[in-house]
Write a structure and sequence with these properties.
CATH superfamily: Tetracycline Repressor, domain 2
Shape: elongated
Structural class: mainly alpha
Number of helices: 10
Helix content: over 70%
Number of domains: 1
Distance between the termini: 75 Å
CATH topology: Tetracycline Repressor, domain 2
CATH class: Mainly Alpha
Largest sheet: none
Order of helices and strands: HHHHHHHHHH
Length: 207
């Protein structure tokens, strides 16, 4: 009975602590999530531990659990942060009236976007999709799928600017481009600018 009382007391203290931390945040959420995003982007989802997140974000685990629930919650927030950063490139593509040439420029722009040092970090979405398995959290798999389909839809809309293309051709080329984008994302982590530029040029020769 006494043992149960001690367990209940510790549980009560933990719940109270979480409640206090939830009410009083001593950090700016956008800033700590951006730090988490960069950690996931550099190291990958699977290799990023809660201890690493705690250190990188600069907040304790109680604050992390109170605000984001768990590692998956932090990742989903990080993915939203990533999408907001990438939106500058996507919005530029949406505004383009150059059809395939606009998409080609998006590929070149992405190389610069992903740069960290001499090489890039790839794409957070692509990196994660390459490493997670079938048992991954359904919300994460859904978020990756939604993001990919959104980018593909932008490619589709730009391809439609060429009025000579039929619906089937546009769909096939949009699939080809989104898969090529996955390839480019991974390649930025290993290959030189010259090699990446050659890759892009050859992609668009086929269109």
């Amino acid at each position: 009975m006494q043992k149960c009382f001690h367990i209940s007391k510790r549980l009560f203290s933990f719940v109270v602590y979480k409640s206090i931390m939830a009410r009083k945040k001593e950090y700016i959420e956008e800033e700590v999530i951006e730090k988490a995003m960069n950690l996931f982007w550099r190291n990958g989802y699977e290799s990023t531990s809660m201890q690493m997140l705690e250190k990188e974000m600069g907040i304790n685990k109680f604050s992390i659990y109170a605000s984001f629930g768990n590692k998956n919650g932090i990742f989903l927030k990080s993915l939203n942060c990533y999408k907001l950063k990438l939106n500058a490139l996507i919005d530029k593509l949406k505004a383009s009236e150059n059809g395939i040439e606009g998409i080609k420029q998006y590929f070149f722009d992405f190389i610069e976007f992903s740069k960290e040092t001499e090489f890039g970090k790839g794409c957070l979405v692509t990196n994660t999709a390459n490493e997670i398995g079938e048992d991954a959290d359904d919300k994460i798999k859904e978020a990756l799928s939604v993001f990919t389909n959104e980018v593909k839809q932008v490619f589709t809309n730009n391809l439609k600017q060429n009025k000579t293309k039929d619906t089937i051709t546009i769909e096939q080329q949009a699939d080809f481009l989104i898969i090529s984008m996955f390839g480019l994302s991974s390649a930025t982590r290993l290959f030189s600018n010259t090699q990446l530029n050659n890759y892009i040029e050859n992609i668009f020769k086929k269109l």
